Amino acid sequence: MARAFRIPIVCAGVMGAFGVILAAASAHQPDASRLATASSMLLFHAAAILGAVALSERGTLHPRIGLISAFGFVIATSLFAGDLTMRQYVGHGLFPMAAPTGGTLLIASWIALAVSAAWPRRA
Description:
Structural class: mainly alpha
Radius of gyration: 15 Å
Helix content: over 70%
Low-confidence stretches: none
C-alpha cells in the first residue's frame, strides 16, 4: 500500500508548484482573478492531499477511503483549477461544467475524508 501513497504525494508536489506559478502570474497580469482562485485551490488542496496521505499511512484514517479522498482532491482540483486557467489563457474552459464538476468532487472528497476518520479500522 505504501507505493499507492506515493502517487498522490507526487501530484501534491506538482500542484503546489503550479499553485505558486499561477499566484505569480496572477500578480503580474491584469484582470487575473481566475488565476488567483486557481492558485489558491491548488495550494490548499496540495496540503490537504499530504495530510490525507500522512494520516492514512499513520492509521488515523481508514487507509482506502483516505487514499480515495486524496485522489479525489487531485482530480477535482485539476478540473477546477485547469478550467479557470484555460479560461484565462485560451478563452474557453476544459469542457462544459468542468469547474462545477471539480467543485462538487472537492466537496465529495472532503466528505470522504471525514468518513475515513469516522470509519472503524480493521484490527
